[in-house]
Amino acid sequence: xxxxxxxxxxxxxxxxxRNSPDRMQAKxxxxxxxxxxxxxxxxxxxxxxxxxxxxxxYEKWFGKFVNRAPxxxxxxxxxxxxAEMWYKYFGAETEIVxxxxxxxxxxxxxxKVIQGDQGSTAFxxxxxxxxxxxxxxxxxxxxxxDNVHQIVTLQKTYGLLRDGxxxxxEDVHTSYYKNVRVQGxxxxxxxxxxxxxxxxxxxxxxxHTKFAIGVGKTPAGPHVDPQLLSLFRKVQGxxxxxxxxxxxxxxxxxxxxxxxxxNMAYNRIDNPQAEEFxxx
Length: 280
Ligand SMILES: C[S@@+](CC[C@H](N)C(=O)[O-])C[C@H]1O[C@@H](n2cnc3c(N)ncnc32)[C@H](O)[C@@H]1O
What we know:
Elements: H1 21-28, H2 37-42, H3 54-62, E1 71-75, H4 81-90, E2 95-100, E3 111-115, H5 121-131, E4 136-141, H6 147-157, E5 161-170, H7 193-204, H8 226-231, E6 235-241, E7 244-249
Parallel strand pairs: 1-2, 1-4, 2-3, 4-5
Antiparallel strand pairs: 5-7, 6-7
Helix pairs in contact: 5-6
């Protein structure tokens, strides 16, 4: 989809604002990154509720998109507080598509709100038809926090993220909530989002299930599920924090052995090429 020009209006349509639209507009005219995200957060005109340690982690993972006109897909709009925060943080050309099952915030010049259920695969198929592969720079799941929904959302939207993009799922402490509030929770419950995400570690390291470096043998044991391999073919890294999972999208990092002594050659079997991993 072609990038649409952004027209700057003010935020009169955000509901439950503590501030007047004029005051909010005055703040939003600041360029992204002129103030820290923490400062931005405490100056929001719209209610936004976060855990404190999220703020520096947002900056760590999203900082590279400041003033780069990022396209953001955010599940969970609520009052529009985080949308206001992203707009102020990333700068004037930020484009946000917000998904909510019951939006209490209307759209603005930078926020398009789409009503839908993140647990519905048919809904995500519609979104994929509208935006297409690789449209978004950042995807944030701050919706129902239900494990089943978080997994469906990751499965159905990862393709919408461009290479170099960041997938962020927050409040994943619900992975540990057994029979409380959400489906799929409980320590080591295979249906939890955390357990699902842990499998991405195996995807990243999959070749080592097929070839033992320096030994030249096929390790015994199972290999990674082909569906997971296909879904997460483009994951460079997966990062776990308290209540947050972050995926870095991109071609897998090259597994090339190097050494500091140019005249010393390894036996080729110590440093196999990717096409040599053909054992299934
Ligand atoms: C934590 S709030 C989002 C807060 C917002 N991101 C912010 O920081 O200001 C969660 C939102 O997810 C929405 N939600 C709940 N279940 C959902 C579902 N199945 N699909 C989409 N949105 C859902 C709720 O209506 C609510 O507005």
